[in-house]
Amino acid sequence: MAFESLTEKLTNIFRQLRSKGRLTEKDVKDAMKEVKMALLEADVNFKVVKQFTKDVTEAAIGADVMNGLNPAQMVIKIVNEKMIALMGSEMTEIRVKPNGMTVIMMAGLQGAGKTTTAAKLAGKFKSKGKRPLLVACDVYRPAAIKQLEVNAKKVDVPFFSLGNKLSPVDIAKAGVVHAKENGNNLVLIDTAGRLQIDESMMQELVDIKNAINVDQTILVVDAMTGQEAVNVAKTFTEKVGIDGVILTKCDGDTRGGAALSIRAVTGQPILYVGMGEKLSDLEQFYPDRMAGRILGMGDVMSLIEKAQAEFDQQRTEEMAEKIKKASFDFNDYLDSMAQMNKMGGLESILSMLPGMSTKMKDIQGMIDEKQMKRTEAIILSMTPKERANPDILNLPRKRRIAKGAGVDISEVNKLVKQFDQARKMMKQMPGMMGGRGGMGSLGGMMGGMRGGRRRPF
Q1: Which of 68, 227, 328, 436 is least surrounded by CB atoms within 10 angstroms?
Q2: Greatest Cα-to-Cα distance within the chain, rounded to the nearest angstrom
Q3: CA distance 71 to 64
């Protein structure tokens, strides 16, 4: 998971601080030395780390923290506040004109995820009422035009291309004309990337900006490249001029350096972060929420927003009522799994809960994705009547289901037994479903998952 190693190290440092009770100036300075090493190992820019730890140390010592009732907690609070400030303090949105056409140019190195991100953005703005057009100006990379076309269809957004014979500047100009003629008020231009920065690449971007009056230039960088992502952002800022950055691949084992360094080094805000391969996996960047994730405090607000966006409110309330009465069935289970997968899966959900990020290694051992797939196969091998009435599952039916799912009958028996136990447990714990909307249902699902790696609920 993103920032896992850094989070673990910072959590251990803070745990040691809490164990001391009263703190001396030396305790704070020693802790900041460890924080400094953790940030450097996370590939955060050296100058940024030096200034950050200096600011935290001065604030902690200068605020009479040591004489407070809970000095360790005050130090952690200062670290959190300084980290939020380091990443920009407030969320920054891509500026889109309320009236008329907005032109956005996507830039970045090859492999950063620029083409996919352009489609993700188009889908985001379409859901907000805009009428976007995706314009294919990458005439060099094989299959780039086709990739953008395929992704445009997935988000149901119009696509414009003139092939790879004309220059990117001419295609961009024609794309803007096409948008005006067809009522599109947002143009997203996918430009070519290179394996490394070169003069011709930069000049091409400058030429496009000059030819069509680009309103926003968005740089897409791969978070997994760490400090190199910051260097790329700095060069693009100086050579082309950018209005913001989108960090991709933040769901991987990234060290976190780019997220903590880009704003301080370039002066440009991080706008979004890519948290997965699906076209819906693009999250608004909130400095306070990201600081919470890095410091192991979770990101409950993002989790709630995901639930509100993906969950069917009426269906969730119906399911909550069923679970309270212990009358849910295997159809409800499949619905729960579908909703959870829309939110990125159980692992992604748990990582956003306070205190869970440092336990993800243990949690990953509990979550057996293959077993969950087999469980789904077992349920899908049932008839509609059997899914709706689990109590009718006798031995002949179980044998047929096992054969259809390609599993041993013992797995079917185990699933049915655990399903019965889950129903009993839910009946005894109605408070588990007390939350409103999707979050109540989600709590119920996760509560059952904690009991062991093979429980379906």
Answers
A1: 436
A2: 75
A3: 9
pTM for this structure?
A: 0.68
Gap between the Cα atoms of 38 and 53, Å rounded: 11
Q: What is the mean pLDDT of residues 21-46?
A: 87
Q: Where in the chain is the domain with CATH 3.40.50.300?
A: 102-296
| CATH entry 3.90.420.10 includes domain 102-296 | no
Quote the CA–CA distance of 149 and 134 in Å, as a whole number.
8
CATH number at 304-449: 1.10.260.30
- CA-CA distance, 326 to 444, in Å (whole number)? 12
In the chain, CATH 1.10.260.30 covers: 304-449
Q: In terms of Cα–Cα distance, which of 390, 437, 383 is closest to 418?
A: 390
End-to-end CA distance of the chain: 23
- Percent of the chain whose pLDDT exceeds 90: 35
Residue written as token pair 């096992």: 402
CATH domain 4-86 topology: Four Helix Bundle (Hemerythrin (Met), subunit A) (1.20.120)
pLDDT at residue 72 in the model: 81
pLDDT digits (tens, 9 = 90+) for 279-335: 778 888 988 888 887 887 655 555 555 555 555 566 556 656 665 666 678 887 777
